[in-house]
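User: I'm designing a mutation panel for Putative dehydrogenase and want to avoid disrupting the core. Could you give me a predicted structure to guide residue selection? Please restate the sequence first so the numbering is unambiguous.

Assistant: Good idea. Sequence first, for numbering, then the predicted structure tokens:
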Amino acid sequence: MLNIGILGLGEGRSIISAALESKKVQLKMMCDISIEMCKHRAAEFNFHHYTTSYQEMLDDKEIDIIAIYTPDHLHAQHIIQALEAGKNVICTKPFIDDLGKAAELMRVAEKSGKKIFVGQSSRFFEPAKRQRKDFEAGLLGELITIEAYYHADHRWFLEKPWALEQAFKWLYGGLSHPIDFVRWYLPEVEEVMGYGMISSNGKTAGLKNEDTMHFIFRAKDGRIARVSGCYTGPTQPPLRDSGMSTVLRCTEGASQADYHELRYSVTDKTGEEKIITWGDKALKHYFRFEGQSHHAGEYQNYMEYFADSIEQGFTAYPDLKEGIGTVALLQAMDRTLKTGQPVKVADILKEFNLTREELTA
């Protein structure tokens, strides 16, 4: 069994639960800069091996994996420290907050020989897993187009001072989920065009960046995709709609994976139509805390998949290169919001001395 150390205990709550429940990974140590947060999580999970020193955790030779859940702007630094200490790394999304450290990350990762996995948790939710399984089994035919969205009533964010700062962008925190779905099925997105705005709710609160956005993508082979996000208004009833959903429209079928509802619908190539939901066992696996916050089940799924990749010698995706590619696409989306013009992903990569070939090698 592999040992894991967890850094960042606010966002790291789900993976603490995941590690404590896992039969493949054992929690060895928790770390947070705040001693109060350490004590809080220690009491919550009755696990009392914690530290406020990241270096102490890195120096523990029994730890195989460092799982990073710190603020976005610290990810690159914390990943590099873990790799240099000889650890494999899980890092939550968004993987890094800009591409300035991407080339250095690739160099350090190659030198270390250790694995990096990006915690794009949504892929590891039950409806998304079933959708992918049906697609790979050929039940839908060839992909024509994909539509993905993440809409949430996050008006409570507008009461938080950090959400009103210039640095806060729903583009990176929210849309990284549907963008990951698009790249999962259409990895070679070449160009993006989008519009965004601040809603009247956002303007009243003093929001600095867009809370409502729609984007169109074009892949190298000419196929197109669509992504949207709206965050400061009510959502429809879950029986009618889903807060996060991915629709595949293919040559012989179509499917839709609804995230929180644990609901999947499909019309396959035989013409059969199905709507599938999952019951208590799955609900208890995915949702372990109050409401539907902190979906620990998907974290356990991807943590164990990564552990298998270390022990069996395969690559767990999304890996370092795929994570950097997603950040490049997010930065292209950020650019098109500012300019109102289409933006090529290759132009963003070039600004940071990166190429598409490096990320697909």
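For picking mutation sites, this is relevant: The CA atoms of residues 167 and 177 lie 19 Å apart. The chain has a mean pLDDT of 94.
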